[in-house]
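Journal club prep — side note

Before the paper discussion, L.F. wants everyone to see what a predicted structure for a comparable chain looks like in token form. Sequence:
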Amino acid sequence: MEGHAGVEFVELPAGPATFSESTSAPGSGSGLPQRSLLQLHAHLPHPDCRRLAVLTLTTTAPARREEYRAILRAIAGSVSFESPG
């Protein structure tokens, strides 16, 4: 997971998951505000081992990293690969 920090492996109700984060900023010539972006990622492999659910949460508030990690963990914890019907 090159370029990712805070890599963590956890067991969720839907199975194993990987959490990580990365930071980036818009290019200097983009015309966008030069604010750091924090991207939090969750990767959850499907039980068939052929598919992968990827969840990403992006914020311009990297100082609130722990709160956003908790939000993403809660979302990932609600993932189910079973049909709701």
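L.F.'s comment for the group: The beta strands are 5-12, 15-24, 37-45, 52-59. Keep this in mind when we get to the figures.
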